[in-house]
Amino acid sequence: MATMRDGLKANREAAEEAKAKQIDEALTDAAESKATDADEEYYKHEEEL
Fold first, then answer.
1. How many helical (H) and strand (E) elements, i.e. helices and strands, does the chain have?
2. Exposure of 42 by Cβ count < 10 A (0-12 exposed, 13-18 middle, 19+ buried)?
3. Distance (Å, rounded) from C-alpha 48 to C-alpha 16?
4. Which residue in 5, 14, 18, 25 is a FRET match for 43, CA 20 to 30 A apart?
5. CA–CA separation, 38 and 44 (whole Å)
6. What gap in Å lies between CA 29 and CA 49, rounded to an integer?
7. What tens digit of pLDDT does each residue of 2-45 get?
8. Global model pTM greater than 0.70
9. Distance CA 12, CA 3 (A)
């Protein structure tokens, strides 16, 4: 019984870790996208000057 419980706990922890990694990657992608947009906006205004 304890072995099954340990297995379920390990699976839950692995799922939580995978979810946290996905969230981290999504936040990183969003931040990089925002930075790229900001760079493009900056250079667009620089060219207008």
1. 1, 0
2. exposed
3. 48
4. 25
5. 10
6. 31
7. 799 999 999 999 999 999 999 999 999 999 999 998 888 888 88
8. no
9. 14
What is the token pair recorded at 26?
């999504």
DSSP state of 49: -
Task: Tell whether the torsion through CA atoms of 31, 32, 37 and 39 is positive or negative.
Answer: positive
Q: Using CA atoms of 34, 37, 41, 42 in order, give the dihedral in degrees to the nearest 10.
A: 60
> 7: which 2 tokens?
């297995």
Cα atoms found within 13 Å of the Cα of residue 15, Cβ hemisphere only: 6
Residue 6, both tokens: 């340990």
Handedness of CA 14, 15, 20, 24 (dihedral sign): positive
